[in-house]
Structure formats: C-alpha cells, structure tokens
# Entry
Amino acid sequence: METTDAVEPDPSPEAPATAAAVNPHAVTELRPQPHAVDTHCHLFLMEAQAADAVAAARREGVARLLCVGIDVESSQRSLDLAESFRGVFATAGMHPHTASDLDAGAGARIEEMLAHPLVVGVGETGLDYYRRLSPVEDQRRAFRAHVALSRETDKPLVVHVRDAWEDALADLQAERAERVVLHCFTGDLSVAHEAAARGYHVSFAGNVTYPNATRIRDAVAALPSDRIVAETDSPFLPPQSMRGSSNVPENVMAVIAALAEVRSLDVHEMVAATTENALAAFPLMR
# Structure
C-alpha cells in the first residue's frame, strides 16, 4: 500500500489563514473558502492519488470528505486515508454487493473499526435489487446487522438503495433505525416525504444534474431544507457537464450548485445549508 504525505489544510476549515493575515501588506488572490462537505466518496477507487484528490477538493472549497467503505478491506483503507489526511473521515461496512461476505470474522473487524473516532458512520449498507450480486436474503441479513451496529455505536447509517425502496424502508422501521443517511437518493416523492417524516437525511449526487432526473429534482424541491446533504459518490456519477470522465470530490460543488438552482437559492446559501446538515448527520466530522 502506497503512503503519501498528508495534505494539511488550515487549522480552521471555515476560516483559513490568508497571506493578509500573516502580512497585512500582502496582495492576496481571492480563493473559495473551504467549507463544503462531500458526504460520500470512494478515494480508494479513484484513478488519481488520494493526496491529489484531497488537495484539489480543498482548492475548490471542499473542507471535509467522507470516504465510504464497501467491504472490510476498503473500510480499512478508508480509515488509513482518514488517518493520513486532515479533513478526511471514514465509514466501515459492507455494501449490499458484498453482503454475502459478512461472516463473524468480517463483522468483528467492522466493529473494531467502528470504535475509531475517525470512523464516523456505519456502511455503506442497504439493498440493491437491480444487480443482486448477493442474494436478497443475504442483503437483508447484512442490512439488519448494520442497523444494529448503528444503534449500538450511535453512529449514522449510510444506506444504499436501488430498486428496493419498499423492503429498505420496512427493514429500517422494523429494526428501529434512528440515524440514517439515504445515499445517492433516487426515490420518488412518497419516499422523500417518508424519509423526512422519519428524520432521515437525504443525500444527492451528480445524477441530480442529469436531464432525465426530474424525479430526483422533484425530491430536492420537496424536502425540508434541514434534510438535504450533498455527495459525489466519486469516482462514479460525474455531473452532467463532466459525463464520460471519472468523478472526483471537488465536483460536489457542481452538485450543490444544482441543488441551489432547484431550490432557488444562492450557491453560498446552499453550501452553508448542506454543510450544516452534513455535520448534523455526521457530528464526529465537526
């Protein structure tokens, strides 16, 4: 495993030091103030080096990244990255595609990682009936196990759902899930309303910018302002203007701009709102 020098952001992401703060006579270039949060990315899957991706995100105004594990090995890699780069945090869990691999040994390693303060969430977990790379029974068993871990650790649950909303919502309710982030939301208005009624956070990715994503944009418009967070799911789902390229965390600014347009807000207002909501959803990222 390669090691890289840590990207050391300013001690206060919301108020970065400037040349003028050091030398009042210095002429400074106006740069975006690091503030935004990418609540879901996979640094370990990117073509770019993690150091370069983190540095580029900071230059575009993204102060915090949540690197989301999809199995035991990538969860450990996410934690390694969180320990290497200030402003990067991790989750630990098993994606529904790898749910069949959740045995006692894997579960023990995930629990061990969840004890680390830089591991701020459980997952990504959930149900995927589109690809079904693990049998449905294994997916639901693993999903319920992750809900239990979320409750035991008091860390939020990062939930992937594709073509499985009825079962996913039923399992979340049956297992009494409390702190939930619905990642890369693709549900309809009824799902959005139910999520808001339960107090879940709803995360939107680059597909909110796609021409055929009217249903997703309708959900953006309908949700209460305090339920919306932004993500890239990089290296997947680049915004429309970047289709055909590998997605990167800095592109969360394009997602936030799309959310702002739907909600008729200034982009800076949307950055502030999604950041506040992300830190409410993942308080250990503060």
In short: The CA atoms of residues 13 and 51 lie 17 Å apart.
